[in-house]
Amino acid sequence: MIRLHEVTRRFGSVRALDGMSWTAAPGQVTTLLGPNGAGKTTSVEIAEGLQHADSGRVEVLGTDPWQAGPAHRARVGVMLQDGGLPQQVRPMALLHHLATFYARPADVTELAETLRIPEFAGTTIRRLSGGQRQRVALAAALVGRPDVLFLDEPTAGLDPHVRRDVWSLIRETAAAGATVLVTTHSFEEADRLADHVVIVTTGRAVAEGTVAEVSGDGKLEDAYFALTELADAG
Ligand SMILES: Nc1ncnc2c1ncn2[C@@H]1O[C@H](COP(=O)(O)OP(=O)(O)OP(=O)(O)O)[C@@H](O)[C@H]1O
C-alpha cells in the first residue's frame, strides 16, 4: 500500500507539492497522469524514500519511506526513466548479479525471455538502443520480486510488440499481489493498465478512482483536459 496525505514539498519559491493526497492499493496497477511539472516525479521520489516531504504523511508498506532501512528498500522496485544502469556490463550478467541481493529473486532467465532480452544479450548496456535499455531497467526493477513497484513511463519509446509484453508483465505483477505505480503521459496506457487512476496538476491530485469513475460519461482524455485546464485557470 502507498498512501500520501496532504504532502507538501517546496523548491525555493516553487510549490512542487501543495497538499498532494492519493493512494495505491496492493494487487492493483495505479497510474499517475498529469502535465509536465505537475508533481508526479516529486511525489513518486518521496514515496520511494529518495526525497523527504516538508509536511504531510507518507506511508509505504506501513512505513515512512524516508526513515526506512534496507529491509524495506529490498521490498521496493524502482525503474527510473534513464535507467541508471552500469554501462560496461552485458544485460544478463547485470540481472544475475542483482538477483544475488535478494532472498527470493525472480527466475532471471524467464524474466529476460518475457522482455526479449536474449535478442541483445551479447551487447553491453552502453551500446543498447533506448528501448532495449529500458527493457533491462524494467527487468532490474522486477528481479527482486518487489511488493511495491514504481515505473516511470515504462513503455515510452518501446515498439508495439514489446509494449504489449510489458503491459502483460505489469498486469501479472499486480495480479501476483504487488502494489504497482505507473507514471505515464499515455491515455492508452492508463486505459489498458489501470485499476486506479490519479490525475495530478499544480501539486495536487484533482481526481482519483477507476478509469470509469474518473472518465464519467466520456473518455479519460476528455476528463483529463477538463480537470487539468480547470485547475490551471484556478
Ligand atoms: N530539485 C528541484 N529543484 C527545483 N525545482 C524542482 C526540483 N524538482 C522538481 N522541481 C519543480 O517542481 C515541480 C514539479 O516537478 P516534477 O518533476 O515533480 O513534475 P512531473 O509531474 O514529474 O513532470 P514531468 O511530466 O515533466 O516529468 C516543477 O515545477 C519542477 O520544476
Automatic annotation (TrEMBL):
<keyword id="KW-0547">Nucleotide-binding</keyword>
<dbReference type="GO" id="GO:0016887">
    <property type="term" value="F:ATP hydrolysis activity"/>
</dbReference>
<feature type="domain" description="ABC transporter">
    <location>
        <begin position="2"/>
        <end position="227"/>
    </location>
</feature>
<dbReference type="InterPro" id="IPR017871">
    <property type="entry name" value="ABC_transporter-like_CS"/>
</dbReference>
<dbReference type="GO" id="GO:0005886">
    <property type="term" value="C:plasma membrane"/>
</dbReference>
<protein>
    <submittedName>
        <fullName>ABC-2 type transport system ATP-binding protein</fullName>
    </submittedName>
</protein>
<dbReference type="InterPro" id="IPR027417">
    <property type="entry name" value="P-loop_NTPase"/>
</dbReference>
<keyword id="KW-0067">ATP-binding</keyword>
<keyword id="KW-0813">Transport</keyword>
<dbReference type="InterPro" id="IPR003593">
    <property type="entry name" value="AAA+_ATPase"/>
</dbReference>
<dbReference type="InterPro" id="IPR050763">
    <property type="entry name" value="ABC_transporter_ATP-binding"/>
</dbReference>
<dbReference type="Pfam" id="PF00005">
    <property type="entry name" value="ABC_tran"/>
</dbReference>
<dbReference type="GO" id="GO:0046677">
    <property type="term" value="P:response to antibiotic"/>
</dbReference>
<dbReference type="GO" id="GO:0005524">
    <property type="term" value="F:ATP binding"/>
</dbReference>
<dbReference type="InterPro" id="IPR003439">
    <property type="entry name" value="ABC_transporter-like_ATP-bd"/>
</dbReference>
<keyword id="KW-0046">Antibiotic resistance</keyword>
